[in-house]
Design goal:
Radius of gyration: 29 Å
Helix content: 40-55%
Number of helices: 23
Strand order of the largest sheet: 3-4-2-6-7-8
Shape: globular
Structural class: alpha/beta
Distance between the termini: 84 Å
Number of strands: 10
Strand content: 5-15%
């Protein structure tokens, strides 16, 4: 069969387009921003095209949107461009990051180049899943993004656009659109940008307020320095609550006791720890927290500060009761409603995804009975199915509310018995080292960063922690024992499967073999 193709009647334009890449996570309005940019170009008679490559899922991968736009050749109106579908490293004029780390990821992907790229990014943070699930503080270093952007970009405009969006009742995409207008990178007037927002017809007033604020802020930065490259924001200083009475007789008595027995410079961290453990259990549990603190030597302030912090973290562990309690609090429903901007006349539905292991469910039972349940393969198969519960529905809410009510029985459960046994071993080890090597005792305190989370995450963290504790016993007596424990903790925090930690522990063993 012969196939003939008629010659195309459309000639291709070879003029250079303006290229724009937008990186945004789900819920940040990246698609809306891209639609606005395309509509803006088409409003002025330009050819424009957008494509997108979605991330894996919300909060685990950003969507990369790519736009190419080109003005028509008025002398040759029969020519139409063929625009690219994907950004090419070193060939992007404008990169927009809806969040600071998205700007950083654009740099890593090679989309930002010093000879041509304007980088616009919001300086706020929306933590990714990997940052939230990492043991300890997994927050990425924002200062590194600023340093890289100041080198990689031709121009870099960054400020907290989420704060402006909240203040104006809009979303980040509106502020980003304003920052793009204020940068002067596109050959369109402010009126064209505003007309594009009005033509969309959704949330016009709020979007225009946010757009104007973003345009003015970016315009002022460019006017001040056309090659503006912001300095990194200084890290926020940690703010602790005041160790003061709140009007509750039992809690106020604990406050009086803590103020009497604890050094004044530790009142902030003690107040934070006391609030946490009392909220987790009750006033008596807060008294236990102070008992353990008061038994610790007072001559090393750094050690006592670390112990006060991580003791509270260890005592307020995550269990099924705690999860149910947090998910049924009135404040949570109010917070979710604010975050999704639900109106008073809108119905909010929240679906919770649960996948507890047999250990979590058995942990709710008394020790003897719970251990028997754990050994039942049949029950394990029955439980290991996962559940979806809509906490805004009366039946599911009541179920979780009843589970949260088990808090008064928590001290009699298998999980609590295990947690307290594990905690006491750690406390005794800290006290032992405190008398001979306060630096090692402090390092052992801070190793509690490894333990946290829920279900499998908790199990993996606790396993790593136990290995580090055994190594600390082996290292005790060496002048560099504290440094070695700190190194092991750093390795464990970055080690997903534990292989790197095992290798570091073998290195520790060689220290004694060589000796």
């Amino acid at each position: 069969m012969n196939v003939s193709v008629a010659p195309s009647s459309i000639a291709l334009s070879q003029a250079r387009p303006i290229t724009v890449a937008v990186l945004a996570m789900g819920g940040q309005g990246g698609g809306v921003l891209v639609d606005w940019i395309v509509a803006l170009a088409e409003r002025r008679g330009w050819f424009a095209q957008s494509t997108s490559v979605p991330g894996v899922a919300q909060r685990t991968g950003a969507t990369i949107y790519y736009i190419e736009m080109i003005a028509p050749d008025t002398s040759k109106p029969d020519r139409h461009p063929v625009l690219s579908l994907m950004p090419a490293p070193g060939n992007v004029d404008i990169v927009i990051g809806a969040e600071l780390m998205e700007a950083g990821r654009a740099i890593l992907r090679g989309l930002v180049s010093p000879d041509r790229t304007l980088l616009i990014g919001s300086s706020h943070r929306s933590l990714a899943v990997i940052e939230k699930t990492a043991p300890g503080d997994g927050t990425a270093d924002a200062a590194q993004v600023y340093e890289a952007a100041n080198v990689a970009a031709n121009r870099f405009i960054a400020f907290d656009m989420a704060e402006i969006a909240d203040a104006t009742g809009s979303v980040v995409s509106s502020v980003l659109f304003g920052a793009l207008a204020g940068s002067g990178a596109l050959p369109f007037a402010t009126e064209d940008f505003e007309a594009t927002i009005r033509a969309a017809g959704v949330g016009v007033d709020a979007s225009l307020r946010a757009f104007t604020a973003g345009r003015e802020r970016a315009g002022a930065m460019v006017k001040q320095d056309p090659k503006i490259k912001p300095a990194a924001k200084p890290p926020l200083a940690k703010r602790f609550p005041l160790l003061e009475p709140i009007g509750h007789a039992g809690y106020d008595a604990l406050v009086v006791r803590a103020r009497r027995t604890m050094p004044e410079e530790l009142h902030g961290i003690v107040a934070a720890g006391l609030q946490r453990v009392v909220d987790f259990q009750d006033i008596a549990y807060g008294s236990e927290y102070l008992d353990r603190l008061e038994a610790m030597p007072r001559d090393a302030t750094g050690l006592l500060h670390a112990f006060a912090k991580y003791l509270a973290v260890a005592m307020a562990y995550d269990d099924v009761i705690r999860v149910a309690d947090l998910k049924t609090r009135a404040g949570r429903f109010d917070r979710v409603r604010r975050e999704v901007r639900a109106g008073d006349d809108q119905v909010l539905a929240i679906t919770e995804f649960f996948h507890p292991r047999i250990e979590e469910m058995a942990g709710l039972l008394p020790p003897i009975l719970g251990e028997k349940v754990e050994r039942s393969p049949r029950l394990a198969r029955l439980i290991d199915r996962g559940r979806k519960l809509r906490t805004t529905a009366p039946s599911s809410f009541l179920l979780l509310y009843c589970v949260a009510g088990l808090r008064r029985l928590r001290r009699r459960t298998l999980r609590h018995a295990r947690e307290m046994r594990h905690l006491e071993e750690w406390v005794q080890r800290v006290r032992k080292f405190a008398g001979t090597d306060p630096a090692l005792a402090t390092a052992v305190c801070e190793a509690r960063r490894l333990v946290g989370g829920y279900s499998d995450t908790h199990l993996r963290g606790e396993s790593k922690f136990d290995k580090v504790m055994l190594a600390s016993e082996r290292l005790a007596g060496r002048p560099d024992a504290a440094e070695w424990v700190q190194r092991l903790v750093k390795v464990a925090l970055k080690d997903a499967d534990g292989a790197a930690l095992d290798g570091a522990l073998r290195t520790v063993e060689t220290l004694f073999e060589d000796a």
